[in-house]
Amino acid sequence: MPAERGVVLRGTGGVWVVRTAGGETRESALRGRLKQPAQIKLAVGDDVVVEPQGGDTVWAIVEILPRRSVLARRAPGGGHGERVVAANVDQVIVVFAAAQPEPHLRMLDRFLVVAEANELDAQVVVNKIDLAGLEATRARFADYPRAGYVVHFASVRTGEGLDALRESLAGRTSAVSGPSGVGKSSLLNALYPGLDLRVGAVSEAVNKGRHTTVGAWLHPLPDGGFVADTPGLREVGFWGLTPAILGTCFPEFRPWREHCRFADCTHRMEPGCAVRAAVERGEISAARYDSYTRLFAELTHDS
């Protein structure tokens, strides 16, 4: 059989499941030379070439094709290496809950900065609006449409917002991320019942979800495109992000940055800062600006 091109759907124990252009799945092992330290580390979403090895049931990944994008973060546990969550992603869908667990908007800002730093489009989904009410939830998350983000208000229980979200996923490769317990897997199951993702309850003792997704898993969608269900992240570490470029990761800063007196303005204490002036006038959210200053301090400390 000839070599085939495909996309990596998932991997565990050295076995990678590759979906070919024809829709077949091939359980494949990584060829030895691709395991060398200098080689790109294979990730879910990678486009690859597979070849049969001694029959039509044993396959090997013989080439990892160039990536058009990555969703990467710092390795967990205080590490300083890069962890590629998914490759060849078109957009990041960040899911938070209106309640249970209580949303921490500074954490949402971290997820959005990770997407912006990876030069990926991002959308926000606020799930479980049936628990908090649509009007109150819209008010709580009002800073994000103001910043330029598409925000979906959804409920798996009532079905509200699911049609618009499904439309935004069609034909694209999307990474779905967010904290544990916000209902990512339940949301995807409601959108695409055939996925049958494992769902875990929220622990009332700690108000955090138990991890039910153990590794990124790329799912082909019936209406075209793919969705990567990623593990819930208790921490979001930045990789390759410096204080100097953090301001570019807040889209609401962009109309003002070029009007700052200094080209290298950090938007913190310099005179003539147009971004800070916009905050004082209420044209930029004070809460979002506070997230920026906290993240700037964190990055300065880590660098």
Protein architecture, described:
There is one protein chain. The relative contact order is 0.13. The protein has 3 domains: 4-64, OB fold (Dihydrolipoamide Acetyltransferase, E2P); 70-229, Rossmann fold; 243-302, Orthogonal Bundle (Ribonucleotide Reductase Protein R1, domain 1). Mean pLDDT is 86; it is low at 198-214. The longest helix is centred in the C-terminal third of the chain and has 17 residues, at 286-302. The strands form 4 sheets. The chain has a 6-stranded mixed beta sheet, sandwiched between helices. It has a 5-stranded mixed beta barrel with strand order 1-2-3-5-4. Strands 6-7 form a two-stranded antiparallel sheet. It has 10 helices and 15 strands. The radius of gyration is 21 Å and the shape is globular. It is 25% helix and 26% strand. The protein is α/β, with parallel strands linked by helices.
Key terms:
303 residues, alpha/beta, OB fold (Dihydrolipoamide Acetyltransferase, E2P), Rossmann fold, Ribonucleotide Reductase Protein R1, domain 1, 3 domains, six-stranded mixed β-sheet, five-stranded mixed barrel, 10 helices, 26% strand, globular
What is the ordering of alpha helices and beta strands? EEEEEEEEHEHHHEHEHEEEEHHHH
| N-C termini distance | 51 Å
The helicity comes to: 25-40%
CATH architecture label of the largest domain = 3-Layer(aba) Sandwich
Cα shape: globular
Give average pLDDT, whole number.
86
Q: Could you name the CATH homologous superfamily of the largest domain?
A: P-loop containing nucleotide triphosphate hydrolases
Task: Point out poorly predicted stretches.
Answer: 198-214
CATH C-level category of the largest domain = Alpha Beta
Indicate the CATH topology of the largest domain: Rossmann fold
Integer-rounded radius of gyration: 21 Å
* Biggest sheet character: 6 strands, mixed
